[in-house]
């Protein structure tokens, strides 16, 4: 089949976090083919990404053949090279991610297979998940046995806050539960070592994004200082080339590529292949979303998918119709063709 149309839009979000996410959050990508298939994808980069997809990428994509996963890989490589003058990382790769996922969705529909089965005929049927957010008791009620808690360093009292919330998670979720902290680049080396000591009695599974992704060498040194707590990161890294630098510096115990940012499934598969050779665990960022879920189900990623839950009463956008619901800390992988979801077009 042949690609006949490519279009990206920025949804009317009700619930974006301020700062960069107001204008640069996730975009919806739609491709159409001459056989009547419609493929939906999800990428980062907001309004800037929309311009790249509807302009440069669309000019390249329309008229190209889409009949196999090899075709998708070839398209990925071509778009990457063509966008090098303004790309290689960042928004251009976020845009490429959305295109890549839309191609996989269309191909899965054409072959009447879920994307997970396109990639691996013996894919996992169920994936364990963890909750990200502050509402520990709600997550425990729903059957989660793992939680990642957002935490920012704002001064000395931050230690007390971190001890309090992680102890509460340990108490609510049980002694065998995984408890993680996502500090979103708000710590430094001294704070990380200090917090590692302060939280030793809790038994933290991983610290996430303790430094910026530009500090790969220091992360590699720091990783050894906090052992056996795992150092996790990689959501702000792009393509297998970027993860090769992470590998070279031994920066993380756990790699966290975001499939809607790092280059889509095509890049994700290359990253996992590298991780296997490196004997490194891969736990995709936001892996409980449909695209990450199919990726985890079909690959050698850890059986551990992130669901960003928010709080019990927080407003949800519900952008994607058909997204699977978790049950007792697990998600069933859909057997519907493609990714098994479509957007709520009232938000587009």
Please provide a written account of the structure.
InterPro entries: Enolase-like_C_sf, Enolase-like_N, Enolase_C-like, Mandelate_racemase_C, Mandelate_racemase_N_dom, RHMD-like. It comes from marine metagenome. 40% of the residues lie in helices and 18% in strands. The protein is an alpha/beta fold. The protein has two domains: 3-112, Enolase-like, domain 1 (2-Layer Sandwich), CATH 3.30.390; 126-347, TIM Barrel. The strands form three sheets. Strands 4, 5, 6, 7, 8, 9, 10, 11, 13 and 14 form a ten-stranded mixed beta sheet that branches. Strands 1-2-3 form a three-stranded antiparallel beta sheet. It has a two-stranded antiparallel sheet with strand order 12-15.
CATH architecture designation of the largest domain: Alpha-Beta Barrel
**Main sheet record:** 10 strands, mixed
Going by CATH, the homologous superfamily of the largest domain would be Enolase-like C-terminal domain
Number of helices: 12
- Strands, total number: 15
- What is the string of helix and strand elements? EHEEHHHHEHEHEHEHEHEHEHEEEEE
Rounded to the nearest angstrom, the distance between the terminal CA atoms is 26 Å
Organism: marine metagenome
Protein name: Mandelate racemase/muconate lactonizing enzyme C-terminal domain-containing protein
GO biological process, one term: carbohydrate catabolic process
Domain Mandelate racemase/muconate lactonizing enzyme C-terminal: 134-229
